[in-house]
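Hi C.,

You asked whether I'd gotten around to modeling the 127-residue construct. I have! Everything is below, sequence then structure, no commentary in between.
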Amino acid sequence: QVELVESGGGLVQAGGSLRLSCAASGRAFSMYDMGWFRQAPGKEREFVAAISWNDGSTVYADSVKGRFAISRVHAKNTMYLQMNSLKPEDTAVYFCAADSPTSLRVGKFKTGALDYWGQGTQVTVSS
């Protein structure tokens, strides 16, 4: 069992930056593929970024590529999402997620059908 808690959301002006954190508790944090999804009002939840447990490889949605960076620190059981050059369309509730260590490689992670989810943190970008 893994519990995930997000933090770091808030209100920022367009062009600004935020760093989200996802603290994991439970066994074998390093054995899970992990990532971020977001859901804007009236829209479906969408994939943002993910990082492999195995080799640290990363995948990003086209909409955030070059602006966001995902990372994880195993010793702290924490994953991060550094968000730069924020746009009003980045406004959403951001969710941390974790899944089996093959999830990213086999293409499952992006579908959102994942084992563990955090409660979400609100990010609001004003124009």
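If it helps when you're writing up: The chain has no helices and eleven strands.

Thanks,
B.
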